[in-house]
Amino acid sequence: MLRMFFTGEGYNVTITPHGRQTLTLCREQLPNLIILDIMLPDTDGFAVFQQLRMDPYTRPIPVIFLTQKDGRSDQLAGLELGASDYITRPFDLRELKIRVRNLLQAIKQKAVKPRISYKGRLLIVEDNIDIATILHTFLTESGFQAEFVATGRAALEVCQQKLYDLIL
What secondary structure, in 3-state letters, does 53-120 show? Predict the structure, then answer.
């Protein structure tokens, strides 16, 4: 239902019912937003969320928990972990659409900060997280607009959406 709805709204949607597969997909595709259930067949959604936050590639991706766990303690736990939102089932599809749209707009507005001096937009393609983090930190502190992805496939996908001055 969510795939059909959000695809109809113009979003690219990838769905997986498994938490472990979510981590791999997110590293490869670097989505703009993740909607995550807490009750997954192979693992706990809170554990998946914590692993997403430990990975520098997926750490900045906003996450909305959408789940049947409607207890106040579960909701507070999700928000305390750092989730962007927590929605319980049954839910209003229109409300979810508005929350997703508002969250993505807020992210977009934060990303549109004018640079004092533009040195260039760089894409770092590196599967070693430590090396990618060091390069990213050094280059952004030097005035470059740098992003990184972990795989060649992810690089091809992101290059279809953005132009880069240099790819490392």
Answer: HHCCCCCCCCEEEEECCCCHHHHHHHHHHCCCEEEECCCCHHHHHHHHHHHHHHHHHHHCCCCCCCCC
